[in-house]
Amino acid sequence: MSAQVRTRPRARRWLAASAAVAAVTGVALAAQVAFADTAFSATFEDGSTSGWSKSGGSWSVVTDGSKVLQQSNAGSENARDFAGDSGWTNYTVQAAVKPLSLGSGGFVGLLARSTGATTFYRLALLPGNQVQLQAVNSGSVTVLGSASRTVSTGTWYTLAITVNGGAISGSVDGAQVASASDASIAKGRIGLQTAYSSASFDNVTVTTGGTTPTPTATVSPTPSRSPSGSPSSSPSQSQPPSSALYVAPNGSAGNPGTQASPTTLASAITRVTAGGTITVRGGTYNLSSTVTIAVGNNGTSGAPKRITAYPGETPVLNFAAQTEDPANRGLAVNGNYWHITGIVVERAGDNGIFVGGSNNTIERVVTRFNRDSGLQISRAASDTPQSQWPANNLILSSESHDNADSDGEDADGFAAKLTSGPGNVFRYTVSHNNIDDGWDLYTKTDTGPIGAVTIQDSLSYNNGTLSNGTVNTNGDRNGYKLGGEGIGVNHVVQRSIAYRNGHHGFTYNNNPGSMAISNNLSIDNAERNFSFDAGTHTYRSNTSCRFSSGGSNDKTVGNADSSNQFWTGTNGSRCATYSGALAWSFAADGHLVVTLGGRAVSL
Fold first, then answer.
1. Catalytic member of 98, 187, 481, 555
2. Where is there biased composition of kind Low complexity (predicted)?
3. 481 catalytic residue (yes or no)
4. Which of 34, 81, 471, 563 has the most other CB atoms within 10 Å of its CB?
């Protein structure tokens, strides 16, 4: 399915746990309510329009650089496509919109709080370079606000409507074009619309600010587990500081970086000082060159440099113009002490986000559709000495999916491999539907061992198969690949889940070290749930379950006591609580919430 309710920026098809689902946290098992930040998103990459209901027009998924939803009948008087939940109240709906034709008297629009085919709020792109925010009640149109704005066919725009009680506002490419007070429509679904026009739509998201929408779709099962600690920090929902540099899709490098005159991300990176903030407005940034934080461009431990999404908006850095090449990364973080929050990086020619610096926090990001690993930690340059390999980076409350290279052998969700230093941590992270592995911690004899990596409270599922069903047999297809080339590195993997990956769930991958593997859950991976053929690893309180046919017995060389329940032909007693449909979400504070059959899983 291409459109489903779930949480977290920008990816696409997974069900969020509702606010009623409790996340069991900490050793004391204190309850915390899951709260959706992103309640819905759709990118149409799997070609499906399941979950959408159309009225009029000719709607289909087509290729326009990537897969998009297109309404192609320019003569249709009223073409609409709706999704979401009729009970949604306060939220922001955002979409990339490209008018293909704009007929006289026509428009292309985004809808919020739709209670039916003719009642909703609408942000409309009109002929004659006009944008209008409208209230439509039983077909009667009231213009709540308007602005002059260049509207060209064949150009992508990011439209957003925010509805919060009686406060209604609309923006184009991150810049507000109208706001008003209107309480005539209290709740409703989202929608896309054209009149006497044709258009393409993509990257539809709904983010919530106060009330978690009721889920309307389910997803392939994902176990749930309990995080053990709080994120080191969480993004502020307050307004940016007065000194912030503003970046927007229509920004110019020479602009001062104010809200009224935004600059570019590349320019802002060179200008921000230690302790300063770069605020990135929502919308799609179509980029062809790597955006680089250079070696030596550093914050400090007490005053990191920040790149943060504007509250309630989703910036998408799109590098589709790049060719597949190791030189063509998306965002390269080669400086130290940066904190990056709330962005989406997609379609880079290599890694989406490359981390070559140290002491950085990458939080609440999504990396997707990149042509190598979505997020990778490795040295910034080939001559970087091992003592300066990237260390002590924290990847937090983030998602990586549908990354795929042409040969299927290297594009993982997350990677700390080849030349990464000690102290790198992945916490509350989700990797799914990547062509190779969910996590890759590969180390090589010709570069020396990487530093020990810690993976905590994370989820890896369906790796080896993209969301559109594509499989490349060259891929390793593991959930967590923890080594390479016979080099022992003592990684730590705690309270994490491997579910239905295309090969092993957790595998030592020729790492004969002394890894600590504890409180993990592995279900229905195609070969082994746990595959450790050598080493002095320690296993405590792990659980392995099979609810489908196939697969082999677990192999766990090392120190495994009776606290584990591995699979050797039958399920242990704990497996009874791990059946049913998988769902996941991020709680408001960034904790990962996973459920199986509607039950929160505690590990």
1. 481
2. 207-243
3. yes
4. 34
